TrEMBL record:
Residues 1-19 form the signal peptide. Keywords: Glycosidase, Hydrolase, Signal. The keyword Ligase does not apply. This is Beta-glucanase. The lineage of its organism: Bacteria, Pseudomonadati, Pseudomonadota, Alphaproteobacteria, Caulobacterales. InterPro entries: Glyco_hydro_43 (IPR006710), Glyco_hydro_beta-prop_sf (IPR023296). SUPFAM superfamilies: Arabinanase/levansucrase/invertase.
Amino acid sequence: MRLLFLSVLCLLLAPVAGAETAMRSGTISPGALWPDDKGVHINAHGGGILQHDGVYYWFGEHKIAGDAGNRAHVGVHVYSSRNLINWKDEGIALSVVDDPMSDIVRGSVIERPKVIYNAKTRKFVMWFHLELKGLGYKSARSAVAVADTVTGPYHYVNSFRPNAGIWPLNLSEADKDPARTVVARDFETGQMARDMTLFVDDDGAAYHLYASEENHTLHISRLTDDYMRPAGDYARMLPMGNDEAPAIFKHKGKYYLITSGLTGWAPNPAKSYVADHIFGPWTALGNPVRGTLEQQAITFGGQSTFVLPYGNGHIFMGDIWRPKDAIDGRYLWLPIEWDKDKPVIRWYDTWNLKTLETPQ
Ligand code: DGJ
């Protein structure tokens, strides 16, 4: 009886003790199980982080077990933290629904959700990549949801292919021929939009970056002042570069972009770019991974999703996907270091956030 009591006590205390250890040490272990405040592995894949009123909010895809987890059965999960180490489960920010007529019916694909705060409207605006149920990845749509409070509930607004009837700022006259380019083919109906992220610049202007043109070319599209729609000016970032998984950040007045190649859930070499202006032109800086040939070839087994400013530097956030058991996907967070003026990423089994608190 006494033994049983002690075992139950140990079970009850285990997750809490784990969380305390993490908080005391302030360390991050890429690829490990990351328990939330209930001791459950964090379920926020393809995610991004919004810092609001001194709290970090991590939004991501809620996955379920097995390969069914590659479709949306629950929605977008949100967690909160004051230290990026101890995460409180704040529940489902945006839920799928059972109405078969809804874009976000259970079984659709909801990927790479990102949330930004609009100070003018005081709304939290979520964008995500949506694939309509039963159509594989053919829909290639962007979707928007909105909330009055950061953790939600978010109310679904609409989905669309962005920038219908508008030419990119940097397309040549010759490329406006539908026989020549996908961007011209899709001019009337709107541009394909798959992997995506959002970015708010220092002046409050927000941008939507998405993999377009059959995943061959990323676009960057400015949003309206309320962040709810494309504003009408957009640019092709890396024409025919075959980039996806965009993660953008700003450092010393320049814009940096980290992407992956196109190999589905399988990892491939990361790529990095720099630009003086947000609409480009972008200059290739090569693979940001420093390490063994294997680590460079598969980006430590992960794929970029977001870059979070922290302290005096930045945290690279990626996903180590487990498509056969999606819920077991892991998180690849590593400090961004600098090799002269190139952002680089090295592997650490564990690393301390303090490394980013000293001047870079
Ligand atoms: C790679 C993308 O980066 C993921 O977000 C997801 O869309 C998979 N492809 C699907 O195969």
